[in-house]
Amino acid sequence: QVQLVESGGGLVQPGGSLTLSCTASGFTLDDYAVGWFRQAPGKEREGISSISSSDGSTYYVDSLKGRFAISRDNAKNTVYLRMNSAKPEDTAVYYCAADRNLNKLRLGARTFEYDYWGQGTQVTVSS
Fold first, then answer.
1. What pLDDT digit, counting tens, does each position of 25-45 carry?
2. What is the model's pLDDT at position 83?
3. Which residues contact 112 (CB under 8 A, 6 or more apart)?
4. Measured between alpha carbons, how far is 56 from 71 in angstroms, rounded to an integer?
5. Integer Cα distance of 61 and 28 in angstroms
6. Is the model's pLDDT at 111 over the cut of 90?
7. Dihedral sign, Cα of residue 112, residue 116, residue 122, residue 123
8. What letter does residue 68 receive in the DSSP assignment?
9. Cβ atoms of 39 and 113 closer than 8 Å
10. Which residues does residue 38 pair with via DSSP β-bridges, in sequence order?
11. Is residue 22 exposed (0-12), middle (13-18) or buried (19+ Cβ within 10 Å)?
12. Contact, 111 vs 99, CB < 8 A?
């Protein structure tokens, strides 16, 4: 089955850390750039980070630089998003997308326009 699956979400205390995984099955993820997005209740979806397929270059939205880290392990067909110093405002459903066009991930597109889109994983930051 060809799909992209996020995992690793859950409840984390403020100041804590969490690592999300985005794992591909049925296709080779290292052929694709991968982006992470999130959508908080009542808010629009926002793109927060991406990583290229060619040289592993990374991008972060300004508000998350220094706290979030994206990485990829091609041997595991997985891209990770490490969240440090978690804040209540990080509470959201986190999604990953894979696309051959890195600019599409950075500039944004409609969900169906991406080559692959995951089902999301809930992250709740609360004490």
1. 999 999 999 999 999 999 999
2. 97
3. none
4. 8
5. 26
6. no
7. negative
8. E
9. no
10. 46, 94
11. buried
12. no
Integer Cα distance of 106 and 39 in angstroms: 16
Size of the chain in residues: 127
- What's the gap between Cα 14 and its chain centre? 20
The 10s digit of each residue's pLDDT in 49-102 is 999 998 889 999 999 999 999 999 999 999 999 999 999 999 999 999 999 998
Beta strands in the chain, from DSSP E residues, in sequence order: 3-7, 10-12, 18-25, 33-39, 46-51, 58-60, 68-73, 78-83, 92-99, 116-117, 121-125
Neighbours of 38 (CB within 10 A): 23
Tokens of 41: 């209740």
| pLDDT value of residue 107 | 84
- How far is it, in rounded angstroms, from Cα 75 to Cα 86? 28
Look at the block and give the residue holding tokens 């997308």.
97
